[in-house]
């Protein structure tokens, strides 16, 4: 059971590959390089909507999260492009069909 649980979060099929970088694949990784950042932005957008969108603090927080994660995703995307010659050209950094 413990071995099965430790394998669930891995991007690698073989644990011996743990010291090498691989291109992430599957699910949202097929369209963006940083789907975990996109998911976090979606969560903060939900928080903003749930709060009614009337508080300036929530808008500032949302703006900071979008800006910070967009910059980080852009750097991650550029790193993937430099690191892997065969990195999928159709992927965007964080927002599908936009950036």
Distance between the termini: 41 Å
**Outline type:** elongated
DSSP, total strands: 0
- Secondary-structure element order, N to C: HHH
Residues in helices, as a percent range? 40-55%
Q: Indicate the radius of gyration in whole angstroms.
A: 17 Å
Low-confidence stretches: 1-8
Total helical segments = 3
Biggest sheet overview: none
What does it look like?
The protein has helices at 2-7, 35-50, 56-83. The protein has one domain. The chain has 99 residues and is mainly α. It starts with a helix and ends in a 16-residue tail after the last helix. Helix 2 packs antiparallel against helix 3 (56-83).
Write the layout of secondary structure elements.
Layout: H1 2-7, H2 35-50, H3 56-83
Helix pairs in contact: 2-3
Pathway: Protein modification; protein glycosylation
Organism: Raphanus sativus
Subcellular location: Endomembrane system
Give the gist of this structure.
The chain is 51% helix and 0% strand.
Short key terms for the protein model shown above:
single chain, 99 residues, mainly alpha, 3 helices, disordered N terminus
